[in-house]
Structure formats: structure tokens, C-alpha cells
Specification:
The chain has 230 residues and is mainly alpha-helical. Helix content is 82%, strand content 0%. The chain has a single domain, classed as Methane Monooxygenase Hydroxylase, Chain G, domain 1, CATH 1.20.58.
Length: 230
Amino acid sequence: MEKLERHFEKELERLTETILRLGSLAESAIGEALRALVERDPDIARRVIDHDEEMDQLELEVDHICTDLLALRQPIARDLRFIITALKIAPEIERIGDLAGNISERAIELAGEPLLKPFIDIPRMTAITSEMLKESLDAFIQRDADAARAVIGKDDEVDALMEQLFRELLSYMLEDPRTISRALRLMMVAKYLERMGDGATNICEMVVYLAEGRVIRHGGLHPVNGGGTQ
């Protein structure tokens, strides 16, 4: 029995390490995608896109570990919530990596066109979303619901910056139709970043569930069956 317990703990540790590795790759992809856009460097953008497969494999590894733990150990209470949370946040992290790849695709397209405007709001959005991802994963490791709620509050900043940028880009398009294709691509970049913020928010909502057994998505306010902090 003791040997089985040690194996279970080691698998939980491996699960945590895999989640963190996935998160680290996603954070790096966000930063490199922005660099590709700002420096107008298609080679950097292509490297971001090429690394997507590694993130896909890590997501599959998380799924495999979680499935084995659920099937073989039938965990309860806190351990069960931890595994369920890991299973749900891995796709969110991988999706954030996909969005960084999407930004890189737009960076490649924009690299061959004249610069429309200085990059101001997009780097600010990127900094916030990258910070949200990092802090959401920290909250997951610490099982810290208060930290998770603080991250959720930052999503409004990302939304406000996106709306501000959309208004500015719309004015460019109205004044000069030749800017439309470039402005639309920048709007897409901003939307990708907004979705990253949504992804980090989803992770944090799951952290609250992990820490408190409380579902806060879709307005849920009450502990689920088996809730609590045991």
C-alpha cells in the first residue's frame, strides 16, 4: 500500500511538472510572437508556429497521466479536484499557444507591408495576458483562490485595450481604404490576445474550484458535490 501511495504522489508531481512545462512554452510563445510582430521578423514567427507540436504533445501527456490516475487510483476529495483541474486547464494553455501561433501568422503577413502605426496597445495587451497566464499557473500550484480572483480582475484591462485599439484602427480604415487589410490583421492580433486573457481567466476559475470546491463559471456560486477544502 505504501508503495502504491508513493507511486501516486510521484505521478501527481509528474502531472504538475508537465502542466508547468506546457505553461512555460505558452508564455515563451506569447513573447516570441510579439517580437516577431514588432521586429517584423518572419523567421521568429515560423519558430513559434513550429513549436506548436511540442505543446500538443504535452497536452496529450497531461490527458494520459490524468486518465491513468483516475482509472487506477480512483482518487477522492482534494486529489480528485486537482486531477480534474489539470485535465481542464491543459487545453486552455495549449489553446493560448495556438493563439500565439495565430499572431505569428499575422506577423508573417504584415512583415511584407508598410508599418501602419507604432505598436503601443498590442505590447501592453501582450504584457498583461502573459502576466495573467503566469499568475494563473502560480495560483494553480499554490491552490490560491484569492490570487486566482485577482488575475480574473485583470481581464477587463485587456478588453478595454482591445476596444481602444479597435476604435483607432477603424479610424485608419475610414480615412484611407488602403490601410484596411493591415488594420484588419492588427484587429485579429488584438482579438487573439483578448482570447488569451479569457483562457487565463478560465484557468483561474478552475483554480477557485480546486481550492474551494466552488464553481464560479457561468455565475455558479455554490460548492459542487464533494466540495469544501478537504
